[in-house]
Amino acid sequence: MRPIEMITEESFGRFGRLIRFPDEDRTNFYIVADGGEKPWRLAVYRYWNDTIRRIECHPDSMESFEPLDGTTILIAAEHETPEDYHAFLLDRPVILEKGVWHQTLTLTGESSVKITENADVYSVYYDLPAEVSVGIG
Asked: Which CATH number fits domain 4-21+37-132: 3.40.47.10, 2.60.40.1570, 2.40.340.10, 2.60.120.480?
């Protein structure tokens, strides 16, 4: 089992970015990301799994994960090294960059997140060499 990391700009920076106002920005409206030429969709995703064997990536789409209910662990890995994943406590909204391997697990029996991604998402899957589980203690 890997340690669960807190999401900070430093710990999460190579996978994506936090959805927040920059420290130096004093405006009341800040565009964190836009979909470019592709339309976006908003979705809610509910899951019950506390183990995974497969992760996925979207080569052509960034994707936001915004916690709604439960306690979520977000697995993330750079595109070139999917087996070198990190496990983050998803306690704030983030955006994954294109091509970042990811998956969600719950610590509370059931969790849900809000997702924003391209309306036409292409997914690639990677089977991990062993089952990944999370837990406290």
From this structure: 2.60.120.480
Distances (CA, A) of 137 to 3, 37, 89: 11, 46, 15
pLDDT tens for 11-59 read 999 999 888 877 776 777 777 777 677 788 889 999 999 999 999 999 9
Alpha-carbon distance 131 to 137, whole Å? 18
Tokens of 72: 């979520």
Global confidence as pTM: 0.87
Q: Report the phi/psi class of residue 52: left, alpha or beta, with left for phi > 0 and alpha for psi in -120 to 50.
A: beta
User: DSSP assignment of 35-73, as one string?
Assistant: -TTS-EEEEEEEE--SEEEEEEE-TT--EEEEEEES-EE
Under 8 Å CB-to-CB from 81, ≥6 apart: which residues?
A: none
Residue 28, both tokens: 């009341």
